[in-house]
Amino acid sequence: MTINAESGNRQIGEVMTEVIESSVNMKSLALVVLLCLACGLMSSSFVLASPHMWSKLILTQHWPSTFCSMEHCDPKFDYWTLHGLWPDKGQECNSSWHFNVTLIQDLLPDMQKWWPDLITPASSEFWQYEWQKHGTCAAKAESLNSQHKYFGKVLELYHTLDLDGVMKKFNIVPSETYYAFDHIEGIILNFYSVKPKIQCIHPKGGKVQILGQIEICFNSDFQLANCEHSETDTLRLIDFLNVKGTEFSVCDHATPVYYPPFKGKPSM
User: Fold this and answer.
1) Phi/psi of residue 219, each to 5°?
2) Which residue among the candidates 130, 185, 202, 215 is catalytic per the annotation?
3) CA neighbor of 212 nearest in space, from 86, 77, 85, 64
4) 13: how many CB neighbours lie within 10 A of its CB?
5) Which residues sit opposite 248 in a β-bridge?
6) Active-site hit among 18, 52, 83, 92
């Protein structure tokens, strides 16, 4: 069979053109795929880096006698009261989601007893502050996506932990006798099987520290989890109650701990 040279050259040229175009199309497709993957990664990175995302919840309780010794309020409560439930990331996530006390009317008796404003117990401003600063961020979880769900879950976790009862069960009670910090931490760690964050007030002189606040942590499924902290973690009271800048900071392992008795009652 004889092939005309001109015709053959034309056929070869057409084939080469098709190959080149196919190659170009494949490269274009590959470029599009790579760009899409890059966009996806960037998007995922953005979501993961969002300051409003959280993976852990911090249930915080404080000892009224310690707080009121600094703020000159009347400690009407002789048990550990709630401070709040805080996501580990994000603050004031939705400033337009205003607190409405009428949405938690059925919870108010428990709120007033277990989660009082220690300075003005009849006020709801403390709850409003906690909702706007922390609740609106916790609400990214479906189980916490309303004021009633959030405050109800905080009360549920508080009662489930029963920190006050656990402390008394193991004879960690308000006393004029000082405790070793490791003893207090060890009781909590052994009972709950997770590491808490225990914070104290550190008066000048450094001979004793005053037990003030205990944090116990949960993961996003409300299972107990270790609390993470550095030895320099500090929480200024002004950050949550608009009071003068007294500070809670992580207790020192080597310093005796004073667990002040409830005012007007004998040590237990």
Assistant:
1) -85, -175
2) 130
3) 64
4) 10
5) 235
6) 83
